[in-house]
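Hi there,

I know you've been waiting on this one. I reran it after we fixed the sequence typo, so this is the corrected version. Both the input and the resulting structure follow.
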Amino acid sequence: MLSATFLGLPDEAGPYALVIGLGFVVGIYAHAAKMPRLLAVAIFVVVVASMVAILVSFSYDGSAPRVKP
């Protein structure tokens, strides 16, 4: 399995959340405009971004994040 450090993917959740959110917005638009191919692409983007975020979280080797009390 390829590690996230080998791929050069960021450890922060922000970029993945942005791509997932964009996929949902495009999916809503595609559904409202009755564009099934664009809807399929949006679903694919959401699924792939979610899977990559999970891969990155499993391959994270850094310290645990600090939580404010």
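Quick highlight: Helices lie at 4-7, 14-32, 36-58.

Best,
R. S.
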